[in-house]
Amino acid sequence: MTSLDVATATLDVAAVRADFPLLQRRVNGHPLVYLDSAATSQKPQQVLDAVDNYYRLHNANVHRGVHTIGNEATDIFEGARTRVARFIDAPAEGLVLLRNTTEALNLVASSYARELLSPGDRIVLTEMEHHSNLVPWQLAAERAGLELAFLRVNDDGTLDLSGLDELLAPPTKLVSLSHQSNVLGTVVPLRAVIDAAHERDVLVCVDAAQSVPHMPVSVRDLDCDFLAFSGHKMCAPMGAGVLWARPELLQRMPPFLGGGSMILRVSLEKSTWSTVPHKFEAGTPDVGAAAGLAAACDYFDAIGMDRVHAHEQQLTSHLLSLLEEMDGIDVYGPHDMSARGGAVSFNVTDVHAHDVGTILDRQGVAVRAGHHCCQPLMKRLGVAATARASVYLYNTHEEIDALGDALAEVRRIFR
Amino acid sequence: MQVGFSPVADDLYREIILDHYRHPRHRGRVDPADAVVEADNPLCGDQIDLSVRFDGDQLAEIAFDGTGCSISQAACSMLCDAVSGRSREQALDVAQRFRAMLVEDGSPNDLGDLEALQGVRAYPVRVKCATLPCNALLQALDPGEDAQ
């Protein structure tokens, strides 16, 4: 931890906060305490400027025509592809620019699982997946006659890997799982899962929506086959999401959507497809959001993802201690900081999460309340809903304390 | 108990609401029932199973089961209280006026405990919590009623 502590000491949170205009807001008469970054992050001025700059000076459609502005737009879009690939340490030819994680996972479920797997093949998921890493596989399974199986969640919120070897046996062809749970904060020991899967010639698809924004992630080190994440959870605009896939897989997979940009030659009867990754990018992309995503990568690399992660770990540790010290609060998910990240779910005894959320909001504290698009996990936890506080690089220890004070008000009203 | 002294407690979490939440009236299931309505709010996971039995035109028995926030559960408890033993027409009138109070700025007059829920209007995302049991009741009273 020593190196992390040193890194944290140099993260200037006040300077970071000054980059985020929205964090200056007041809500219901209180300074905003934004603890909902796992749903979407706020955006720094540098990202807003990049989007603004694109539309003011370089807006034209990409990959079309020969005019100067069109070439500039294409350079910005393709530059974003290589920039994002560098951020996740992955070859750029496997990087498909889409709208969000959900679209990326649907692409894999449709163009890989539904099209290339055979009836009876098995896909392994986990009990703690976001609906976006569950429902697309259900759709593919139904249409292609595939079987779904699930890794379970232990009582302490960690993933039960005891049945992994058995589940990786034939007819399993693919494992798709989240790197970090959006509800429990659980960080999955991905490398071990991926190594075990590859030993059995099973591919691994990673839902990295909650990991790429919060920790250094190297696709080369993970050695995964597919990886999906959203720009909007990592300080970029909504509308830019990423699928990275091994280029040789993308070669084999048929297109997801058809239309402009993704073709090579079109006749009235049939068409041939553009090269990888372009054959998966039909229609006009969100170039402004891609420009913002590239700027977000610059922003994070200037700070250092190690430092962001260390700061979040400190805040999460403080948050867990605070919640555990309060009476009548149940915390879900691992307590061991080495097994978790900065999304913390909890309930106040005998108070529904929506009531908690409303009372916190009246005091300027923004948290998520509900099932977090994880109804099967809610069932596993035996709750209808939870409140969730999630931290990011711009949060402070004082904001965690403000959450504690606001929770005391919940306890007072529902005493 | 003291009525809340913060803005939150004053305009939303009235003591009468918290009392119905802590001590729901008509909790359970009518058996046999003339109608059972399962109402869900998929956004927040609130669930209400409302069951009713009529004796002629009179709503002889009404009960509910479910999970959810204080607003949905208290609203259901209050509604059951307000319509139990009434005629079908009277019960419909209460439910429609309650819904009008929440979504159409209707008058909160003559609604008894339910009037305490008018503060919900200031919280647009919570209005659906209060209308969930109301829609279930309207459906139970008149199966042709649109559950929306």
Automatic annotation (TrEMBL), chain A:
GO terms for biological process: cysteine metabolic process. Keywords: Pyridoxal phosphate, Transferase. GO terms for molecular function: cysteine desulfurase activity; pyridoxal phosphate binding. CDD domains: SufS_like. InterPro entries: Aminotrans_V_dom, Aminotrans_V_PyrdxlP_BS, Cys_dSase_SufS, PyrdxlP-dep_Trfase, PyrdxlP-dep_Trfase_major, PyrdxlP-dep_Trfase_small. Its EC number is 2.8.1.7. PROSITE patterns: AA_TRANSFER_CLASS_5. It holds the Pfam family Aminotran_5. This is Cysteine desulfurase.
From TrEMBL, chain B:
NCBIfam families: SUF_scaf_2. This is SUF system NifU family Fe-S cluster assembly protein. CDD domains: IscU_like. Belongs to the NifU family. Residues 13-129 form the NIF system FeS cluster assembly NifU N-terminal domain. One of its GO terms (molecular function) is iron ion binding. It holds the Pfam family NifU_N. Gene3D superfamilies: 3.90.1010.10. It comes from the Bacteria. It comes from Candidatus Amunia macphersoniae. GO terms for biological process: iron-sulfur cluster assembly. InterPro entries: NIF_FeS_clus_asmbl_NifU_N.
